[in-house]
Design brief:
- The complex is a heterodimer.
- Chain A is of the alpha/beta class.
- Chain A has a domain of about 190 residues: FAD/NAD(P)-binding domain (3-Layer(bba) Sandwich), CATH 3.50.50.
- Chain A has 15 helices and 19 strands.
- In chain A, strand 11 and strand 12 form a beta hairpin.
- In chain A, helix 1 packs parallel to helix 9 and helix 7 packs parallel to helix 11.
- Chain B is of the alpha/beta class.
- Chain B has a domain of about 210 residues: FAD/NAD(P)-binding domain (3-Layer(bba) Sandwich).
- A 5-stranded parallel sheet of chain B has the order 12-3-2-16-22, with helices on one face. Chain B has a 4-stranded mixed sheet with strand order 1-15-14-13, with no helix packed on it. A 4-stranded antiparallel sheet of chain B has the order 19-20-17-21.
- In chain B, a hairpin with a 2-residue loop joins strand 9 and strand 10.
- Classes of the chains: A alpha/beta, B alpha/beta.
- At the A-B interface, helix 5 of A face helix 6 and helix 13 of B.
Chain lengths: ~525, ~550
């Protein structure tokens, strides 16, 4: 052991955005932090990557809609290059053969393309959804309540939630408690009638999870989406210039300014445990690095095994089979989606024409199959940032549901057919698009697993369903970023409040460590 | 003109339980029933000479023993014969049997997987603990979480204390139990398809959900909460079919001075100045009562029997949004001899219990996909039994009655009403499945009664043919059942109460809604209830 090895207060494993946020926040508290990234570049699934000569795209996450305001503030991200302006917010467009329907502003402040009665129904529903998501919002930035061991802070937190509920008023609170664990399909049926709008909301509620719109608890997915905010506006979304990698660059700049040492291409082989305490790590090239505190910002299932069996069994039981694929197309020229005007091509285009359609697309995934009519969310990042594609050309980025991690026939055989099914859907809404494809890259959950070291290829590092949320995330008994190993903490999306480019798990974990003086 | 102290609309088991308790508290109670017989969905009818069918509900377990004792049902003829748990047939000609004896059950599992046999200990422990937590809630009125009344706060505190009595580990499990799918839950314990399918069926029976739908783990608990002769989780046949339950209730009611009018369909509830004053029968006859209790489901009660203008908008909206979906059907069959199942040994106890043919969760889930698409499944899930193997009173000597509960059956076929041809196609899917496992089965059939949701709604009056009078999903349980703000058996109309399975704690031949409603009514009347046992913790 060399003397320099003892120099670290904290070692953070994993340079995804949560690892960077945790490292930066800990460094700002005066700790000496080393961050070890296995890949050649930090950012994980939030990198911007070149997938064809001259074509760059956000690797997995392609929309910024939930970067937590506390993260922006604590790390002073705006000073480090993050730009969020109201003019950058992009609309959501529900594509349909009946013509598109567009949600403008922050999640449909203005709705166009729908009947007047639907517009007023939407206004009411939107307000209600935002109100209810607002009740849940404070949970994002703190440790989940621990029912077995209620601390003063925990009690206060729950008390605040109870108060927020009371503020809703009696009838609203009753409705809140009724719909909390409901499925999104029924709620939409109760209040809306336009299939395009319902399809879009059903898609958003289930995006990234292994649920169909008719699955009970699927409404929670929509709350999770709407609890997110950008630029102080709930439900807003933007395509960052330079891709998601630009956001990561801002976080990295904040981390380095705070003094974090970032080492790339340094995969960790194991955590060193002495007397039930994590005291450092051994890298794959055999180097021993010691620190008082070790923070694992990678998938909990990829974490250390040197812990008690009950914990390991629970970790093994975390459901984390990804159900979403990512498509990148290098196009010779920008596509024209039918009925969509130029400005709206900068938005998020969703193919999910009805809740039933989404449900039908979900059905085969339960059996390890994919639907011949997959549903998807499309962005055209080069419309927002032309530097992402060669002049005159265009990048298309799409998240495609439902792509089961364990495809029955295997992805080697299934991938070309899946790509064909996706292209068929795209062709319906943007005729001629197929002929302009210069290069196509389809990342299945299996590819995402391999490329970004995410077991199951699940971008939330574990299903974000009711039974894996809050005090059950990542596993019951260990939901507050601690682990059975003293000195070892979890800070990735597998921890509360889950995935998406929020930085919340990383920040919450850092706060926990600071509070514990670890 | 006579005014009854209370009029109960509908002579189903909950209506009768409610009526019994009210009558025994000294009220003068009238039960009005539209059919010429009482029983609702707990009935035994002779549709072909010599055979008694349990036409709808078919097994007994959930009925609360406290109620049985309070109302002296055994004295009035109710006898429950418990049976050993049946089997799931597998497609390779084998079967997985269930035994009530834990060790025998474990040995049977070991035939399929040693690991699963070991996991069974952990599984039964966890499930039993959950039942212990939830069971006492069945016989209590759910608190209103938006209320500051001392009673509601007290009940909330009771719930809280009950919850705090759990270890942190059990709390976590409880929270997960309410939200997990039975498939995911079982995946945490077992690896063998048929073993998982064997348990999963309790998570879907009567429910418009598939085994992969979150929330079905709770439905499993709901079905596990029953007991026969103090043996928790046991199931039995009512001697003489399920009609024996309501027959005993009716006898108990009459013995304490109650009056039942059959063939008396209620057209609407008589309301004057916002208060229920009685009922108007379909012939136009007015029957007066100081209060009215409806055993009909919440939709039928407030959308059909009460005029819209009498009810607040928000209440009506919530009633309209109540999910009550037909998801099952029933095929009752008279057989001239006992069918043979070559997979089973000749004298297997399985013949006397419930038999299933769906040996994987995937097959169950695919049947649910068919329901979602608005069609019956070509590969339905059946809960089949031959009660006459233990209760010879239901058929002529040597002959048998077979009950097949069928899931899934949608309330509408592709958005249109069921036709007779649909019904026949539905029955054929059932018969052909049984025939695959029992050669010569078709030739034994003497008579058959086929009930799709259409028939169940028409005869019993259950909206959409939903056997639980409303889905058992979290948005419709506890203080949300049937609708938020009215989970305590009262309605927005003074003098009008609810006592059916639409109310807490929900469906199954349990009697708890009827009893709990009686407790609330007697509380409003400030009547003592010494004749009403408190809920007892048994597990």
């Amino acid at each position: 052991m060399t003397s320099s090895d003892l120099n670290w207060d904290v070692i953070v494993i994993g340079g995804g955005h949560n690892g960077l946020v945790a490292a930066a926040a800990l460094a700002k508290s005066g700790r000496k932090v080393l961050l070890l990234e296995a890949g050649n570049e930090v950012g994980g699934a939030a990198r911007t990557e070149e997938f064809a000569p001259g074509f760059r795209v956000s690797a997995v996450a392609h929309l910024l809609n939930r970067l937590h305001p506390d993260v922006v503030k604590t790390l002073e991200l705006e000073r480090h290059g993050l730009k969020v302006e109201r003019g950058d917010f992009v609309p959501s467009v529900a594509l349909s053969k009946d013509g598109p329907l567009v949600l403008h502003g922050a999640y449909g402040e203005v709705l166009t393309g729908a009947s007047p009665s639907e517009q007023s129904a939407w206004k009411e529903l939107r307000a209600q959804l935002l109100r209810y998501a607002g009740v849940l919002k404070p949970f994002l930035s703190r440790r989940p309540p621990d029912p077995g061991n209620m601390s003063l802070a925990g009690m206060t937190g729950l008390g605040q939630t109870a108060l927020a509920l009371k503020k809703l008023g009696k009838e609203d609170m009753r409705d809140f408690l009724r719909v909390l664990l409901m499925n999104v399909y029924d709620l939409l049926d109760e209040q809306l009638s336009d299939d395009r709008l319902k399809g879009l909301l059903a898609f958003d509620a289930t995006l990234g999870s292994h649920l169909g719109p008719r699955s009970p608890t699927s409404l929670l997915g929509l709350y999770h989406r709407l609890a997110g905010e950008v630029g102080g506006l709930s439900g807003a979304q933007m395509q960052p210039k330079g891709g998601m990698g630009a956001v990561v660059a801002a976080i990295r700049a904040a981390a380095e300014e705070a003094g974090v040492s970032v080492r790339q291409a340094s995969p960790v082989a194991k955590v060193i445990v002495e007397k039930g305490r994590a005291v450092g790590v051994v890298t794959q090239n055999g180097e021993t690095l010691r620190a008082r505190t070790v923070v694992s910002a990678i998938n909990p299932a990829a974490g250390p095994r040197e812990v008690d069996t009950g914990f390991v069994r629970k970790v093994k039981n975390i459901r984390m089979k990804g159900d979403a694929a990512k498509l990148h197309l290098a196009l010779d020229r920008p596509p024209q989606f039918i009925g969509v005007d130029a400005a709206d091509h900068k938005g998020r285009l969703v193919i999910a024409p009805s809740p039933d359609h989404v449900e039908r697309a979900f059905n085969p995934s339960k059996y390890g199959e994919f639907s011949p009519e997959p549903v998807m969310e499309i962005t055209l990042p080069s419309f927002v940032d032309p530097s992402l594609a060669p002049s005159g050309a265009c990048v298309l980025s799409a998240v495609v549901q439902y792509a089961p991690y364990a495809l029955k026939e295997g992805w080697a055989a299934g991938k070309p057919q899946f790509l064909e099914a996706i292209m068929k859907q795209l062709e319906i809404h943007a005729p001629g698009i197929g002929a302009t494809v210069r290069h196509a890259e389809l990342l299945t959950p299996a590819d995402i697993e391999a490329r970004y070291r995410m077991p199951g290829g699940h971008w939330h590092h574990g299903e974000l369903q009711a039974d894996q949320m809050l005090m059950s995330r990542p596993v019951s008994g260990w939901s507050g970023y601690d682990t059975p190993l003293e000195g070892l903490f979890l800070a990735g999306a597998g921890s509360h409040p889950g995935g998406g480019i929020s930085g919340a798990p990383g920040l919450n974990a850092a706060r926990r460590i600071i509070a514990m003086r670890a | 003109m006579k005014a009854w102290d209370a009029i109960v609309i509908g002579g189903g088991h909950n209506g009768l339980v409610n009526a019994c308790y009210l009558q025994r508290a000294g009220l003068d109670v009238l039960v009005v029933e539209k059919n010429d017989w009482v029983g609702g969905a707990a009935t035994s009818r002779e549709l072909t000479p010599g055979f008694l069918y349990s036409n709808c509900s078919y097994v007994c377990s959930l009925f609360r023993p406290e109620i049985m004792r309070d109302l002296e049902l055994p004295r009035f003829g109710l006898q429950v014969i418990s049976y050993e748990g049946g089997a799931v047939f597998t497609r390779d000609g084998d079967y997985l049997a269930n035994y009530r004896d834990h060790d025998a059950h474990r040995r049977e599992f070991a035939r399929f997987s040693r690991r699963d046999a070991e996991a069974y200990d952990r599984y039964s422990r966890d499930v039993t603990r959950q039942c212990r937590f939830i069971q006492p809630l069945l016989m209590r009125t759910a608190p209103d979480p938006t209320s500051f009344r001392p009673r509601d706060l007290g009940e909330l505190l009771y719930l809280g204390r009950k919850f705090a009595g759990l270890t942190a580990e059990e709390m976590a499990l409880t929270l997960r139990f309410w939200t997990m799918s039975i498939s995911d839950f079982l995946d945490e314990y077992f690896e063998t398809d048929v073993i998982k399918a064997n348990f999963a069926l309790s998570g879907i029976i009567g429910t418009a959900l598939g085994p992969m739908s979150p929330g079905t783990a709770y439905v499993l608990l709901h079905h596990y909460m029953g007991e026969v002769d103090g043996s928790v989780g046991a199931w039995g046949y009512a001697r003489g079919g399920m009609g024996a339950v309501t027959k005993a209730l009716a006898a108990s009611f009459r013995a304490s001075g109650g009056t039942i009018r059959t063939g008396a369909e209620v057209d609407h509830v008589l309301i004057r100045n916002g208060k229920a004053r009685g009922v108007v029968l379909s012939g136009g006859e007015e029957v007066y009562g100081k209060l009215v209790v409806s055993n009909a489901d919440v939709k039928r009660t407030f959308l059909k029997l009460v005029e819209e203008k009498e009810l607040p908008d928000i209440f009506l909206r919530r009633v309209r949004n109540f999910k009550i979906r037909g998801s099952s059907g029933k095929v009752n069959i008279a057989l001239d001899s006992l069918p043979e199942f070559p997979a089973l040994p000749k004298d297997s106890p399985v013949y006397r219990a419930d038999m299933h043919f769906t040996d994987s969760i995937e097959r169950m889930e695919r049947a649910y996909d068919d329901w979602k698409a608005g069609r019956w499944s070509a590969d339905p899930f059946l809960d089949m039994m031959i009660p006459t193997t233990l209760d010879p009173t239901m058929a002529p000597p040597g002959k048998h009655f077979m009950s097949c509960f069928v899931q899934y059956a949608p309330p509408k076929i592709n958005g249109r009403d069921w036709t007779d041809a649909d019904r026949d196609g539905f029955a054929e899917s059932v018969i052909s499945q049984i025939a695959q496992y029992s050669p010569g089965f078709r030739d034994r059939i003497v008579h058959m009664e086929v009930r799709t949701p259409r028939e169940i709604e028409a005869e019993v009056g259950l909206t959409e043919g939903n056997i639980f009078q409303g889905e058992l999903t979290f948005d419709q349980l506890l203080f949300n059942r049937p609708v938020p703000g009215y989970a305590q058996y009262r309605s927005p109309l003074s003098g009008l109460y609810m006592c059916g399975s639409s109310t807490h704690p929900g469906g199954g031949v349990m009697g708890a809604p009827g009893r709990n409603a009686a407790a609330e009514i007697l509380r409003d009347l400030a009547k003592p209830t010494p004749h009403m046992s408190p809920a007892h913790d048994v597990i």
